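ARCHIVE CARD
Drawer: 12
Card no.: 0347
Subject: one protein chain, sequence and derived structure
Cross-reference: see card 0346
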Amino acid sequence: MQTRTLGSTGPSVSALGLGAMGMSGAYGAADRGESIATVHAALEAGVTLIDTGDFYGMGHNELLLAEALRGRDRDSYRLSVKFGVQRGPGPGIGGIDGRPEAVKNFLAYSLTRLGTDHVDIYRPARLDPAVPIEETVGAVKEMIDAGYVRHLGLSEVDAPTIRRAHAVHPVADLQIEYSLISRAVEADILPALRDLGIGLTAYGVLGRGLISGHWAAGRTAGPGDSRGFSPRFSDGNVEHNLALVEALRRVADAKGLTVAQLAIAWVAAQGPDIVPLVGARTRERLAEALPAMEVTLTADDLAEIEKAVPPGAARGDRYPSAFMSSLGAGN
């Protein structure tokens, strides 16, 4: 497995990271045993970056990872943890809390659930509009100084916010959605990251499965699957978007790749400062994703991919409308 460094101040990590959210119900029921086996397979393949959030399954995901990582050398992997999203007993989101006292409280619970004495990258999942980013970041800085956190990360914030946060403490990386069908980061955010020496960890590289090559027209999201509320999967939009996937499939077939491998390789090819995260819930999906990091795309390949899926070609927002205002970038 190749490695990449997250920005000028962040850690060296595997060039492909594992996003664990789907192992805790975001896309419907997941098999606990298979989830743990997938984490083990990722580690054995050289994946060292594992991403989670304290609100994934209301702590379930952190407890799952604690079980999967038990007995492993703590220096052999890097944990990226998001915080700040408030939940209730039901399925809804209750807002964002970035108050300094809340930051420290969230971290204390995460350390206990994960069974570790430190988090490698700690980041607010979204910007709290009621709390200046300087205050939230200042609290993370205190935890870095105290040894409970190694690096500061950000998630889904705009370029001005990145600059303000970076002035308080160096930011290792920004986690944000980036894929062939979500390219809003390219206008202002990616140039700002490169100007400041900040890395990017890209989630949603397969569009939550939409551009994986495995989603089919007429398929419906099952119980507990958040894709049932996604505009890009809705009737009228999904058919258009799957036509893009078929165009991409023709390019992938010509290179002897699967659609998923080509989509992941495209993200990785956008720069050595970018680390794609794959949300594999099974060893089968992980095994498909891993070879993407060995793919070299030529200028001609990239041109063919852009022809198949031009910027802005996807139909539908990447989140339901109620959540779009909390994002630092659009679609």
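Annotation on reverse: The mean pLDDT is 94. The longest strand covers residues 149-155.
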